[in-house]
Amino acid sequence: MRTQVGIVGAGPAGLMLARLLHLQGVESIIIENRSREYIESRIRAGLIEHWAADLLTEVGVGARMQREGMLHWGINIGINGALHRIDFKDLINKRVTIYGQQEVVKDLVERRLSDGGPLLFEVDGVTVHDLKSQRPKIRFTHRGRPQEIDCDFIAGCDGFHGISRPSFPEGVLSVFERDYPFGWLGILSESPPPDHELIYSYTDRGFALYTMRSPTLARLYLQCDHDEDIENWSDARIWDELYKRLGGARKLEEGKMLQKGITPMRSFVVEPMQYGRLFLAGDSAHIVPPTGAKGMNLAFADVMMLSRAITAFYKSKRDEMLENYSTRCLRRV
Question: What is the distance between the alpha carbons of residues 5 and 28, in angstroms, rounded to a whole number?
Fold first, then answer.
């Protein structure tokens, strides 16, 4: 196969990059090691910043988000039960949209397939080659057959555990990481959230976050030790602690717990985000704690920058944006 940009990974970064390139007349092929069903049901955070929601609309995949997403014009900061509202509209006239990442993926996949763009699921044995040449290659197996994509550029959008970052030669990458001495115990509950906007609650007992996936599906978090065992947290203990850390500021309704688990908090960033014709984007280059809801938004920022750089290369033979890709992305990260 031959294409201009080979994209490894069909998460938000890879799918958005393909859409942006398509709108500029640049061809791409996406490969993904998981099934379509898996990536469309993989639940991730869904807080979309103002500019990122506008981007989804501008590229033609925002219609369902506009119908089903929840607009938040502020957040609540709780201090031992006393709530203080931060008014985004009054301060900066911007909002955030609550719309699950898996829903964004569904919309982008549907658009990609309707555009007729190549999107191969359940590939195996992915490797990248000749990264310093003008014709890098992606090799993999699909449906039992070995395949090769001849590209001009490769975008590594395959997440923290993908093959792209480990394909950099030894000694090229500098790694910056920090493990924090606490974790988040998170639950997904069939119950209405205690407020229509997020509550970040600081208490002497520890931190808690009260957010949502929908008006009837609450996403709730408790700060805990990073090495806590989830088996030590019964449903009753979790609800009791959530009540205490909300401090009576809002009514908290209990519901069936659909998920619960403990996530260690860590930061991980590599520099540079490029080597030869291989460019990293999203979680393959940086992991930030979920406290700031930055993951998908940073991924979109990366691929917006990369799409502009690749487009400039094809349309005006300029490569300075490609050369400066890593520096410009890392400033935001």
Answer: 5
Look up the pTM and report it.
0.94
Instruction: Indicate whether 44 pLDDT > 80.
Output: no
Query: Residue 145 is which amino acid?
Result: R
For the stretch 19-43, pLDDT in tens is: 999 999 999 999 999 999 999 988 7
Please report where in the chains the tokens 């030894």 appear, as a residue.
170
pLDDT at 42: 84
CA–CA distance, 21 with 19 (Å, rounded to integer): 5
Q: In what order do the strands lie in the sheet with 96-98?
A: 47-48, 96-98, 70-72
d(CA 276, CA 134): 9
Residue 154's CB is within 10 A of a number of other CB atoms, namely: 26
Q: Which runs of consecutive H residues, i.e. helices, occur in 2-123?
A: 12-23, 36-41, 50-58, 63-68, 88-92, 101-114
